[in-house]
Design a protein that fits this description.
Layout: E1 2-3, E2 12-13, E3 15-19, H1 24-35, E4 41-44, H2 48-57, E5 66-69, E6 72-75, H3 77-86
Parallel strand pairs: 3-4
Antiparallel strand pairs: 1-2, 3-5, 5-6
Length: about 100
């Protein structure tokens, strides 16, 4: 379980992120979560068996990263960044 932002229990969330080794966008997403002070369970899809299982569970997903928050399919880096901006957990300005 993950807290959104300032450890407020109203924003207690579970975040799962599916990633692929060497994925630039996955690394960017990890940096985004770091800026937002969020943690995620990272599941690396790094074998044919894991790929097959992932594709069976999420047949419409075509790339990585893939983020799920509280069971809701958020999407990739762009969709996750938009959500975090909407929630006020990150700003569009880099520090």
């Amino acid at each position: 379980m993950i807290y959104w932002g300032s450890k407020d229990p109203l924003f207690f969330m579970e975040i799962k992120t599916y990633t692929s080794p060497g994925c630039f966008y996955c690394d960017q997403l990890k940096e985004l979560f770091k800026r937002a002070e969020l943690e995620s369970e990272y599941i690396t899809i790094d074998s044919p068996e894991k790929t097959e299982k992932f594709r069976a569970e999420f047949p419409a997903v075509r790339g990585f990263p893939f983020v799920i928050i509280d069971g809701e399919h958020i999407g990739g880096l762009v969709e996750t960044a938009k959500l975090l901006l909407e929630k006020g957990l990150v700003s569009s300005k880099k520090k």
